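## retry 2 of 3
previous attempt timed out at serialization; input unchanged, resubmitting
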Amino acid sequence: MTLDQALAAAVQYTVMGDGQPPPTSDATATKLSYQAAMNHEGIHPPQTDPRIAPSRCVWLVTVDAPYAGLGGMPCPHGCSPPRQSSSYTAILDANSGFLIEIDPHYP
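## retry succeeded, writing output
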């Protein structure tokens, strides 16, 4: 996965009024190990995924745009909709592009 692919993959989780993802210029990415990415996000064992090697290369992509969850599920019988964040960080596997984690940043 290239830098441009990582940016494009991460911005697809953005909530935009027109249904379109924001430009990738609203995102920054750093390639680092899974363990370093988790440490950056304040996630430490045992919360890290034991199936992922700590040395696995990932993209840590911070998107400066709203995120309101992965969606797809209706809100049953009057529950509150997901809380929307002002920005978020996505952690993507650098080899496959698989989404490992999303960390919303709430104001």
